[in-house]
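Sequence only, no structure available. Ideas?
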Amino acid sequence: MSWPITTIGFDADDTLWHNENLFEDHHEKYCELLSEYHDSSTVEKVLYETEMKNLELFGYGIKGFTLSCIETAIHLTNGAIKAEEIRRIIDHCRHMLEHPVELFEGVESVLDTLSSKYRLILITKGDLRDQERKIAKSGLAQYFDHTEVVSDKNVESYARVLERSQVPIDQFLMIGNSLKSDILPVLNLGGHGVHIPYRITWAHERVHSPPTDHKSFHELESIKQLPGLIESIVPANG
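Reply:
I predicted one. Tokens follow.
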């Protein structure tokens, strides 16, 4: 293993600040809105199927999610959905876009500590305008040397980001809440990953089991534990 780590990448949504809880809240309101037509399990199932069908065209983010919600409502009601009900769906999703950015406890302190020793890169996926808004409102931009908003997170996208940033993969450590998007692609490239699970995981991001036997994989309960972990593993492998 080649050390030291010189660059640390951070996911944004549900790693630095809350995000999936907004979708959880919307799902409850959405199922309630359509409750006279279908039970919640049917609504959730069809909505997810619609999201997956539309993902290639709409991409990740609240705007694409809104379109899938409207399409699903029309489909499940056989076109009987009222204009006022569609307006309520749009209003719910607008509220998600306008919601304040709520940082996890200890995030800014962690970034402040690490930014004095390492190069930090923010790597997030989703709608460009929404991600830029959240980054600006978070007050965390000052800690990052570089920010990347990508359409998806996979081996190819990470390779492009690291090539542009001139970061050797064996000197790169990625932090995130999603094994599928934040950790596994980086491990497959030859980098290092720290998984910090969020209490909610979108079905599309779920992985059956973490790569616990991988020598470059670590898992924490809180981002506040990150500086201690890094300090403990760098000397051990130096």
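The first helix runs from residue 20 to 33.
Hope that gets you unstuck.
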